[in-house]
Every structure is written in structure tokens, then in C-alpha cells.
């Protein structure tokens, strides 16, 4: 894990007696503040700090950031627990048991390389951490981090980070990286190269909904993970504040404690742009400190329909609810106004409106999804910072990333509502990537001789393109939901069970990646030689970047037609016959030759995919080649094609 360190005392990372020493791992345990040598307990097999650049730049503060592998932020502990946290670890937060958690690969060991901090980090520290991880003998590198922008230079594939990860792949190390949280804008991917497994984020069907029952019996729905209240009087913030105070709760100092105490306070909707340094959590805490029974925040958007809002995954410090719709917000106002006695000057004589907030800590399961998260960065991938589209499909695939419970560092100040807690719920592609990391570990355990490319292939070709009801996966946008495409989710939503037995794999060697680099448009051979240290051009060159043997086909500039070659190897235990089925991208004719492939155990077969533009699309269109075997294996190859000319 290349992240912000780890909380070694967390129950997700204790040695339950099943972890023995690994013979091939040579990493060391670095002792330091809050991190004794005993922290490397067999589950955690190595832990080191990389902060030379951060120290030299003056950003590192040993008191705040800890000069040891101890996690001062919480992010590293959270991602590590998602990947390999111990099985059935009770999730306790604010005195409530939310159930049991498990990492994807609870039997895997952890090697910690702390190169990130609450303020971020420096590329040279990250590269040093990667270099040391490979030297130490890790099997998988998990990176819920990335550059802040497309790197400068001749190609995004030739940055120091991408080349460092290429050499990690050459050493047999799988690299899993989050794509970034800059969605839904196109070209927002920050994980570029075909040797990296780049992970997008989805929501899950688990939701934490809450409700308030009004005195008239009406039930209003919303979100907010909090404990319940008894029936209490309701008051607007303006009616229990000093004169001329605003109706929202950004200025809680205007509240009059004697009036607010014991009541449910209505706070009018606050646009996220107005929060500044104030958070929902601090508002709730401030109102709770003066003795209010709870908080109700109105809404100007339909949160329950869009599944939007940071509040949906927030454990609130006092009872509270964010109403889920504009209609419910107005119904609350109408009920309050008709049940509040006022003087002729408008002052409240008596608060008559009452309500009770229910328990919002119990999860409900909608069976919807997965749905591509709004924030998840989108393709297409780019060759350079001129934003020229690349012949590489990104993201690679998708995993759960929204409202994910994970381990935390109690001393972290990063999430105010989780200070002092051992668990918190976060959202982001940072949470999606370690799901894939853990599944890659399971595949590596079952197939120790598989290359990183083979492991990625297994996960991509078996991914789901439909939701739990068999309908196409949807993607969140500012305007609502739309049908998702491979630039949203890559090959699809990861399916761990099928990835263990993919039937066929697409393999790639280091030399093939070098050939790919020599073929990237606008890149001169000298830049490639300088980056990878190859003295001469490969004896055989690719004609197109799309000829790299990936389990997908992306053509960013199709002129007329192109024949793409692919080669598969059987990892099945018996001979199987595959038939190629095609769903053509709009405006593109696709032919697979041969259409029928008979392949025995450990045998390899080649086939071609010819793509011909029937019309100029001037936009990417999407399709699929499906290799359907007679022994229940199905291999899906996503197609993404931009036809610029039909000549």
C-alpha cells in the first residue's frame, strides 16, 4: 500500500495466528513515533516512511504528520482495510455496531510504504516508495493516489511515475490505481498507461435512509446516519435566534440557547459552495452543544432519486436528517407555519409543531446498481497534455467506491466527524481501487505464475456490463442517470468469482509495452530510449498502438479500416470451442477471423478483429466482441472507436 501509512493497532490488521513469515518478501519494519517494531505482526510484514522530498520542501511537520509509518491521515488505513482487512471485524462507530467488515483478501499480508500525508505528497517520495516496494518483493502495488494533472512532456505514458510502474510490471508486480475523482468530465482520467489496472468507482445498493414523523402523522424521508429522538418541538433556526439572523445554520452563534434547547432545529438548505471551512458536521456539533435535540436540513434537490449528497455517508454527531426532496422540505415548512402561534409582529408565542427523528443507522438495500458514481473520472485516455485521445481503454474496470466503511486513525483531523473513531465511511475511487487490489491478490494466490497482464485480463474479460436486474449499467451525471459506456466503467463492474476462472487470458510482456511506446504518436524514439533504457529499437514494431494485446480495443482515429490482432491463451483444464459474437459500434462494421476458435489447455490462438468505418462518426461509439465457450466461459472484449474518415 503506497498511501498515508497505517494504524497498526486496528483490529483489521491484527495477526489472528494464521500469518507466517513470507520467504520472498525482504522488506523491513521501520520503528518510529507510535510505531514499535512489534507493529509488524505478521499481518503487517513491512512498514517504511518516504518523506525526503516533503521534508526538503518544508511541508512535512513531524508533530502533525508523524515521522514513522503511523497513519496521521486515516486514508491509508481505510484503503488497506478494504483490500486485506481481517474477516468479520465489527464496525463500531459512535457507540453503534454497524455490522462486520472484511477486506477482499483477508488472508493477504500488508507492506506499508508511507509517502503521502494530509497535505498530499511529492512525486519523488512516491517513486522512491514504488522502487523500494518492488525491490522488497511485493506481489501487488495498490495506489489510491495519482498526479494532479496530465504530466507534461512528449507523452503521458513517459512520465517518471508511469515508467516506474512499467518496471514494476516487468518485475512481475501488478499495479492497481484509482482513476481520480474529477468526473463526470471527459478526459479526466489520471491513470494513463496500459500496464496499470485503472479503477473507476460505483455506488452500491446499500443506503442509509432516515425519516422524521411529524405531529400530524406524516413521514418525511431523507438521509443522515444518526441516532433517533423522542417527539420534540420543532423550531426554525430564525425563530430561535437573535433578530435578523439568517435561516441557514452557517452562523450558529446567533442561536439563543434558552429557545433552542430541547428542540429540533430546521436549517434551510445551504449550497455546497457556501460551506467554506464549515462542514455539515461542525454545524450539527455547534447546535448540539447548546442543547438542541436535533437538526433538520431542508433540501433543494432530490437526494433520494440522484443518490447525491455528501451527507448520505456521514455519521452525524447529534440526531439529524437532511430531507430528501424539495416537496418534503416544503411540506415541513407548511406544517411548521400552520402549527406555530405568532404575535401580530411575527414573533413566536408558542411552538406547537412536533416531530421525532427515527434511527438512521440501519442500512437498507435497494437491489439497484451498480451505478457509476458522479465523481468517478471518465475516459477517453489521453496521449499527452494536449488531450489527444489514446488507443488505450481507461478506466480498466469498476468497483464499489461510494459510502464504504473502512478502518480509520482516531487522531486524524481529516474528517471532523470521525475524530476519535476507529472506523469511518468514505467515498471515492480511492475506495474502489483497493477492492480490485484484494481481488488481484486472490487471483495471484490461485495462479501464482500469472503475469500482471494476465491478472488484469481475467478481471476485465469477466466483468459485468449489466446491473443486478440484467439492465445496462447506468452512470450518474449532473442531469440525472444515463446509460454508461466503457469510458465510464472500462470493461465493466468487477466480478470476483468469475475472474478466478476466466477461460482465456490476454498476456503482454515488457517488450510489447516498449513496442507500444515506440508507436505512440508524437513520441520520438530517443525519448523512449531515455525513459526505458533500451539501447535500440525493438526488432519488430507495432503499426498501431491498438495492436497491443489488451483485452479491449480502442481506436482514437479510425481512417477507413483497421485490422487489429489479438492472441489468447487457455487457462482452462479442458478443451473448449469459442464462437465470436459481435455487437458493432454505431457506424462501424466489425468482423472477427476466425469466428470459431478451438483451444486446449495452455494452448494459444490468434485472431483478428477488422473494424471498418461505414460512416464518419466524429465521436466515440462503443461495441463488444464476445467469445462464448461451450464450457460456460464467456470472454468480453469492449470496443471503443472514433471514425474520422470512411475512406
From TrEMBL:
GO molecular-function terms, A-Z: serine-type endopeptidase activity
Domain Subtilisin-like protease fibronectin type-III: 547-641
Keyword Protease: yes
Domain annotation Peptidase S8/S53: ranges: 2-478
Residues forming the catalytic site: 3, 75, 430
Record carries keyword Transmembrane: no
Coiled-coil regions listed in the entry: none
GO BP annotation list: proteolysis
Signal peptide span: none
Keyword terms: Hydrolase, Protease, Serine protease, Signal
Family statement: Belongs to the peptidase S8 family.
The name this protein goes by in its record: Subtilisin-like protease SBT2.5
Organism whose genome encodes this protein: Rhynchospora pubera
